Amino acid sequence: MASTQNSETPATEQVITEIFAKSLHIILESRSPYVSSRNYSLDQIPPSPSSSGGSPSTQPGGSRDKWFNLALRECPAALQNSDFWRQSNLEPLVIEILLVDRVSGTEKLLERWVVQYETRKHPGTGRKSKRTYRGATLLFRSLYLLVRLLPAYTLFREMNSSGRIRSLGLSHRIQSFVNPLTRSEEAEMAHLCLTPIDTPFGRLKHSVSYLSVVDDISIGSELSTPMSTELIPDYVGSPTTDPLKRFQTLPLGGSAPICVQPGRRHSWSTDRLGSLNLSPCSLPTHSDPQRPSIPLPLSEVQKGKRPVGCYPSSLSSPQKANLFRCESAPVSRDSERNQLVRFGELPSGVSLPKEISIGGDAIRYLDVAKLPLASGSCVGGSNVQLLDLHDSDANYPFASDDNRTKNYEGERSLAAIVGELLRMLETAPKLQIGFEKSDGPDQNPNPAHSGSRTAANALEELRSYMHMRDSILSQSGSHSLEPKPEKESNSKGSNSEKEMKERNRP
Amino acid sequence: MNCETCQLKELELDPAEIRDVLRCVLHTIFFHRALGLVRPKDVDCELFEITYVQCGDAELEKKIDEKIEQFVAWSEKHPNRKSQVCLSFYEVKSKQSSWFGIKVERQHWEHWIVNVNVHPIHPPKSSFLNTREKVLEETSTRRSALETSVREVLFQIIKFANEKQEHIPPITNSEVVSFPYEITTPSSSESQFGWNKDVIKRILHSGHPYSLS
């Protein structure tokens, strides 16, 4: 048993030793991920193998778990380090909680807990061991609460709950000496001290220095970690999603691309990333002027929490191309998430308007470059071009050919664009990922020859688009919108349907 | 033995927030004063990102909920009023039998006064000036401020519970809640002054020298 230099009684020595152990247990239990004793049953607790004799309390068995009348489940992280400081109770127990970036290996000090025994200048004026035990009982109530009120607990809960491997992680370091904090750490850290526990010949002090604001660290670091990206040339939405909803949900003014849609749920959606959002520590509160503001009201972003920016920042041309294409081929959601996570590599302080403009630049780039998109998303001899999003009518990601959509006195109508879409679907070749060049625009691939499954899917989409067109037309009440391309698409669609029926006839 | 009183910072609550806030505060106080063997139970607030701790005693939880419901019922009848919920710990000093029955003398040694100001928060009606988003933003701002206040109250409890220990009587039983207690809400003493009159009367009759000065 570790001993103090003074002549503390053996009972007091044991209490002091257990105070160190319990402190370590309580702190690591709520800071070491994947280890938690929340809402457990005492019957499930196995007896501690390192229980050291009976305690002055009335509990039978004297298991360490029940010391100070605070029953905790075993904490492996604490057990591994329980003997580290037992060499002498005179040495402080320093527990540092670190936020570790697994990719870069950098560490950020979140908390520093110090438990230190100090000898009394005038021995004999302290309390008896029984009073020491009771003082410790009261202190550990406060300590147990305190570790859950500090900001790092939110990080711990987040990392413990999702179970997925993150680029950021919580780690701890146990020392028997106190490294002085740097000036920056001193400036950004708050300090708390609990009332010391008096012993007959000394007293035990518990103190903590903690980072009062952890929001930007966690979120910024998480997003700055590059994940493996996979560029998929065919980027379209799911065929089951409502394509016209995409038209409706894109905000005006050339805002960010598809990832902004509130109704669209992805693996990177903010309901998952939203859990990363941390409420700021209140004691003391620090204002962070570098927080990027995200003015767009995403429905998935909870108010009052910092949403994670998922908007593209700097995009390379292939990536830009990947964002815009017709719905002829699904894209892997993982790759989509990867790309959007990469887009989150924002320099601190970047505000959304810059990102919006970058998105607009990307759009303009595509417009100029006329990038051919894979899987036959070309339309009638011209490549897919995006509408100018500054146009009030241009809420649609699909480009429209000027010759086809600028009809009826140059007005672009919703129905015309829908008709264009239908025509694009009809003329689209069979769906194959990896096409570098599309077929010639004048070709009219017969969906019937591309496999019954592919044609059936296309026809199903066509029917759904036609239905949506009808519903939109009926809602808008525009009766003059019966453009020629729609008639062509109807005829072609009916032709393809006839062909399919003939093929499917027994 | 001294009687310590802790006045907690006033919390401005919407009626919908009463239960969550009072549960959080009262359970935190009890966790500090239930010195029997406790199996801590972490509980997440419903409306805030705060995790508090309960003692894991079902009977205590039930009693707290009952008192909170009393307070909620009272606050519905008396809206827009400042009020208090008082948690008091006492010792049973003597039991005197009289022809009325057994008279139990209680000596309080600690009072925790939870100050609340319950007033319905009416969000501004949506108009062309107040968009839905703005209304949500204002509600969120107010909720965040309340969360900050609740955190401050919890820190206040930790500080008080840690600093004041000398007045705590010795533990005489092995139950989870070591000391007898009572929770006083305005509904239990319907008067113009609320519960204050009863508490003051109790303090005066407790027989402490300092209280008579």
Care to describe what's here?
The complex is a heterodimer of chains A (about 500) and B (about 210). Chain A has helices at about 10-30, 75-80, 130-150, 150-160, 185-190, 215-225, 245-250, 270-275, 315-325, 335-345, 350-370, 400-405, 415-425, 450-475, 485-505; strands at about 95-100, 105-120, 170-175, 190-195, 195-200, 200-210. Chain A is of the alpha+beta class. Chain A is rod-shaped and about 95 Å long. With about 210 residues, chain B is an alpha/beta fold. In chain B, about 35% of the residues lie in helices and about 25% in strands. In chain B, about 30% of the residues are buried. The interface between A and B is large, with 37 and 38 residues.
List keywords for this structure.
heterodimer; A: 506 residues; alpha+beta; 6-stranded antiparallel β-sheet; 15 helices; 6 strands; B: 213 residues; alpha/beta; 5-stranded mixed β-sheet
